[in-house]
Amino acid sequence: MTTPDAKSFADRIEQFILFLDAGERVLPLNRHAEKLLSSLAAEGALFRALFNVESYAEVRVLAASAKRKIATRVARDGRIAPLYWEFASFKNGVLAFAADACGVEERGDEARKSSPLENLIYSILPERIVEKLVAQKTVRPKAYSHTTIMFTDVVNFSLLSSKMDPVSLIHRLNFYFSLYDEVMEEFAIEKIKTIGDSYMSVSGIPEKKPSHAVDCCLAALTILYHMEKTSRQPENRSGGLDLNNWSIRMGIHTGGCIAGVVGFKKYTYDIWGDSVNIASRMEKAGVPDKINVSEDTAEEVRDLFTCEYRGIQEIKNIGPKGMHFLNRISPELSEDEQGYFPNKRFNELYCEKFVGRARTKNLAVLPVFMRNYLKTREGGLP
Fold first, then answer.
1. Tell me: the pLDDT tens digits for 77-108?
2. Domain residues of the chain, as ranges?
3. Collapsing DSSP states into helix, strand and coil, what is residue 148?
4. Angle, CA of 339, 185 and 157, to the nearest 5°
5. CATH superfamily assigned to domain 140-376
6. Please, is 243 exposed, middle or buried when counting C-beta atoms within 10 Å of its C-beta (0-12, 13-18, 19+)?
7. Segment holding 214, helix H or strand E
8. Is the CATH number of domain 4-110 3.30.450?
9. pLDDT digit string (tens) for 216-226?
10. Which residues, at least 6 apart from 93, have a Cβ–Cβ distance to it below 8 Å?
């Protein structure tokens, strides 16, 4: 089937590559595929074991319809993960290839989000919400009793707008919002929307998780770290403002909210409730480059973070709310002197509080640092 040079090239590709012929033979085209077939040899019914179909004819149908198949489950580094097969038809058979299984189990059925259009939809709405919209054409609002909401905005944005040309302004705003997006993904937090220079996100929906407040505070500290340490540009001052390096305010509140999709065109996933208003007021009552959290949030996280009480904020139709600065991770739990990053002891306490005894069954809702930490532990769970 292949020349030695072609086989050597195929071996360097981190995929499983097979060729299926009309005689229902399954031929490996690289060493990854050879290992796969060896591991499945004892199972019999090779087409079912590989592709969850009964015959070569069914594979031809999949190839002709350009359908993809998630089927084989392969043990890798002690873990089990599905393979994501794609097919290409030829006169004398079908070429089947699948990406390496490593890490697929953490992404769930992400393989289904394959086309540019699907990728775009999943980047706008949470996966669970997309599935409900497709199946039911609507999504009923859902109440969540335990969430943590975060707002950020740019200090003196109106003045900055008057001193910068529109293209540079939007370019800089996009730079910061893209940074926030990456941080939200890192800590499994749901971005809700941006309004002008304000960025709104919530931890604990649509997938519930007991670590919502801690994850949100870690994300806020990570944003400040990048703003202060890694994203600094040469100063460009005008009228007392640095046009290249913006300051931000951050406000966080922990409480309940209602989440759902509004409208039937240009769907928007949004949240409502008093907690949203309180988080917004925490941000407005904040100071540049500090994290202002409500008493409710401080109470949730004070055993892991250093909080500084700063007074009462009167909130219309709600009443007085205590405020605290979230200054850092507690010194004894921090990897660095400034308190941005958790150390091993922090990870252990996090596991005991939120992961132990299966409090969090879905590990995909955990921050990346915790998923990586769990992988280093024997058996993967505490």
1. 444 456 767 777 777 788 887 754 444 334 44
2. 4-110, 140-376
3. strand
4. 75
5. Nucleotide cyclase, GGDEF domain (3.30.70.1230)
6. middle
7. helix 212-225
8. yes
9. 999 999 999 99
10. 19, 20, 21, 22
